[in-house]
Specification:
Blueprint (H helix, E strand, L loop, with lengths): L5 E3 L5 E3 L3 E2 L5 H14 L3 E3 L7 H14 L9 E6 L6 H14 L6 E6 L6 H17 L2 E7 L3 H8 L10 E5 L7 H10 L2 E5 L14 H7 L3 H11 L3 E2 L6 H9 L7 H8 L17 H9 L1
Parallel strand pairs: 3-4, 4-5, 5-6, 6-7, 7-8, 8-9, 9-10
Antiparallel strand pairs: 1-2
Helix pairs in contact: 1-2, 1-9, 3-4
Bound molecules: NADPH dihydro-nicotinamide-adenine-dinucleotide phosphate (NDP) and isatin.
């Protein structure tokens, strides 16, 4: 079995440092690939309400656990996310109920994230209050954010009724997008960092800049990229629906890049964003400034 490191979150919960991403994994493929991933040794799956596969992912985990009784529910880490259109206290409460209903086969959600900061102060605040209550109810074990920039995090950390700090921030990270200011801030605040699109959404897997590293370590380009995330201390979420890629991607956890090579890879940074970039989304005060101009 591949030895995958765990990370302890500020909630006290443990998260495996490699998780299977399931964005764009259709429902029928989710039912097939999740058990294969668990067979390969994955113990962490990253879904979201907008991926439309929460139920299939959860049911695949539940039926795999029945067939593998030596692995317990607590050994698996399941994440979902509340989308922007469900921001605000009441809407988020309903969205949480729906995500919990879809995850009923596995009993609880390990980590629930605010998918992005794209609304306004009042709605983001209401959403966080609903998430805090979900932890108090016991049906959600840890809560966090995704695509939050430093300004969004500072806003959240200043809520007068903040009871629970985000356990992590899930953001796009790879050598072409290293977000050093945000990463430093998160490390200082004790908020774990989760790297999405670690292969640059597949667009960077064949980049020639990876060749010397692949050659030196005798690993694939994808393995170098996943190993880079782990060497930086990030939790990492490679996505694949290709069975033959599951194990090699997970085995990246056993690739140890030298500090010097990690720095060389860091130097590829060119702020290359592959899909969306809500990290720059304006605060209410910035929207008012825009209106004035
Ligand atoms: N919070 C957020 O806003 C976001 C979260 N995420 C999360 O992060 C996960 C991963 O990010 P994502 O953008 O999907 O992309 P990745 O960077 O993980 O790349 C996935 C692509 O790379 C291909 N691939 C996977 N493994 C290999 C390999 N070993 N060799 C060559 N190609 C490979 C996949 O193809 P194939 O599947 O055909 O094998 C797919 O096309 C998402 O699934 C989601 O869970 C992603 C974006 C935004
Ligand atoms: O995985 C994701 N890919 C996306 C692209 C656009 C908006 C949200 C997401 C995701 O969560």
């Amino acid at each position: 079995m591949v030895s995958v490191p765990n990370v302890k979150l500020n909630s006290g919960k443990i998260i495996p440092a490699v998780g299977l991403g399931v964005w764009k994994t259709p429902q029928n493929l989710a039912s097939q690939i999740v058990p294969k991933a668990l067979d390969a040794g994955y113990r962490h799956v990253d879904s979201a309400a907008i991926y439309k596969n929460e139920e299939e992912v959860s049911e695949a985990i539940a039926s795999w656990l029945k067939k593998n009784p030596s692995v317990k529910r607590e050994d698996i880490f399941y994440t979902s996310k509340v989308f922007d259109s469900d921001h605000g206290y009441e809407k988020t409460k309903k969205a949480i109920e729906l995500s919990l209903e879809k995850a009923k086969s596995i009993g609880y959600i390990d980590l629930l994230l605010v998918h992005s900061p794209q609304s306004d102060y009042e709605k983001r605040h209401g959403t966080w209050m609903a998430l805090q209550e979900a932890v108090e109810s016991g049906k959600v074990k840890s809560i966090g954010v995704s695509n939050y920039g430093v300004k969004h995090l500072k806003e959240l950390l200043a809520y007068p009724d903040l009871k629970i700090k985000p356990a992590l921030n899930q953001i796009e990270l790879h050598p072409w997008l290293t977000r050093s200011e945000l990463v430093d801030f998160l490390q200082k605040e004790g908020i774990a960092i989760e790297a999405y699109s670690p292969l640059g959404n597949g667009k960077k897997v064949n980049d020639p800049a990876l060749e010397p590293f692949a050659k030196k370590y005798n690993k694939t380009n994808a393995q170098i990229l996943i190993a880079w995330s782990l060497a930086r201390g990030f939790i990492v979420l490679p996505k694949t629906v290709t069975e033959s890629r599951l194990l090699p991607n997970l085995e990246s956890a056993e690739v140890k890049l030298s500090e010097e090579d990690v720095k060389k890879l860091d130097a590829l940074d060119e702020h290359f964003v592959t899909c969306w970039d809500p990290i720059e989304y304006p605060l209410d005060s910035e929207k008012k400034e825009e209106k004035k101009d």
